[in-house]
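User: quick one, sequence for these tokens?
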């Protein structure tokens, strides 16, 4: 199977600091790859390169096996890459429908907002992702953390994302809300999306991901299938830069 995305030998320096150093990752349809590492390890910078926020100094990105150039977030969206940042980038005073179509509103032939169509489309995508979500008319500031994640994920999915980047999707969520997000991720996998998941929670990564990649000091320590490693192995990779089975 051809990977959805390949990042090959990616490097980026800011001044004298090598933020990302010759990192290679790939992601397949229906797969979740977790990206772990201490603050400053380079994981967020690497993902910002894929999302078009930064341009690499060296390396190559391939989508469906074809080399591409991603110079902006608009380019990333054109390649059906969507990013859900930790703050979710939602407008708190607007409801779910307005947030889903914010900046990409559906208009009628006469140029007016097609509110009925947008609400119907929101109901359809929410029914698919989270059948228990009914608060379409409520400002998103009144929603729970899990419901807000549902809105952000629905926005990405509605606009045909194939590659989804999720930054700390369960941060500050309770047990029930975390389970809701886990179920959403599982549904996206079934639909064939590939997901890069950034988190500091090693236990959560082992439960949600198919593979985990660990970065330290801008370099890739290694990528492992979750069934082949323990939480202690992952912690050793993060802290010591030690791949499983190799001396520190």
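Assistant:
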């Amino acid at each position: 199977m051809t990977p959805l995305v390949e990042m090959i030998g990616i490097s980026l320096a800011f001044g004298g600091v090598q933020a990302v150093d010759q990192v290679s990752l790939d992601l397949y349809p229906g797969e979740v790859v977790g990206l772990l590492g201490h603050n400053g390890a380079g994981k967020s910078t690497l993902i910002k390169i894929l999302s078009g926020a930064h341009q690499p100094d060296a390396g190559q990105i391939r989508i469906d096996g074809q080399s591409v150039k991603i110079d902006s977030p608009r380019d990333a969206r054109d390649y059906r890459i969507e990013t859900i940042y930790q703050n979710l980038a939602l407008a708190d005073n607007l409801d779910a429908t307005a947030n889903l179509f914010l900046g990409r509103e559906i208009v009628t032939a006469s140029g007016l907002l097609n509110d009925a169509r947008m609400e119907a489309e929101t109901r359809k995508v929410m029914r698919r992702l989270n059948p228990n979500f009914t608060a379409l008319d409520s400002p998103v500031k009144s929603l729970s953390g899990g419901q807000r994640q549902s809105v952000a994920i629905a926005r990405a999915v509605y606009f045909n994302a194939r590659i989804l980047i999720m930054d700390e999707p369960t941060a500050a969520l309770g047990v029930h809300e975390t389970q809701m997000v886990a179920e959403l991720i599982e549904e996206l996998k079934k639909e064939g999306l590939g997901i890069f998941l950034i988190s500091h929670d090693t236990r959560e990564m082992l439960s949600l991901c198919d593979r985990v990649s660990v970065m330290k000091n801008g370099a890739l320590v290694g990528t492992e299938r979750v069934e082949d490693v323990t939480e202690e192995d992952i912690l050793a990779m993060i802290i010591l830069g030690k791949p499983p089975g190799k001396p520190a």
